[in-house]
Amino acid sequence: MVGLGTGSTAAYTIEALGEAVEQGLDIQGIPTSYQSRALALDAGIPLTALDAVDGVDIAIDGADQVVAGQLIKGGGAAHAQEKIVDAAADRFVVVVDDGKLADQLTHPVPVEVVPEARPTAMAAIRDLGGEPTLRDAGRKDGPVITQHGNVVLDVDFGRIADPAALGASLASVPGVLEHGLFVDLADEIVVGGPNGVRVLETN
Ligand SMILES: O=C[C@H](O)[C@H](O)[C@H](O)COP(=O)(O)O
Asked: Is the CB of 203 under 6 A from ligand 1?
């Protein structure tokens, strides 16, 4: 069982897994979004779902920013489903280009919020020191609606010194379904750059 991440980097993995399946690799994929499901179907990867299996052997996913193994994810608003699948995996492998590596976590944190709770959640998030912006859909009037029917706030916290503490605070805000801080979840970070690929072990 292989968790299939979301985003432009995870898409390369799905494509490569599809080629391996064509050559006889026996796997079933667990998509984390509409996008990863569609790509996997195109690539010919047999699919299943998290609630239909006993466990997940490995999940492979991208990230928006990586600092010392801690991640910010959710640029594609898929972080809730990704966190469920990635956290369930025996091994969680992150694939990024080296532009995603940073010294400090500063990327805005995507926070998925139940639509009716938007104003109260925004107020609570401001109390935590963040500046939230409702993510706009861009090519539709109104906000991005997630696969769980919620909205996403991109929250600027400046430099995040303690991601575990911030993650716990965000998780305790009523109406927050999930946030994009992935703390102590990644087992391995695979980094691609002009000089090739290197692997950073985290756990
Ligand atoms: O919701 C989307 C995900 O968390 C992506 O894995 C993340 O945004 C990285 O995407 P990309 O590889 O396209 O930069």
From this structure: no
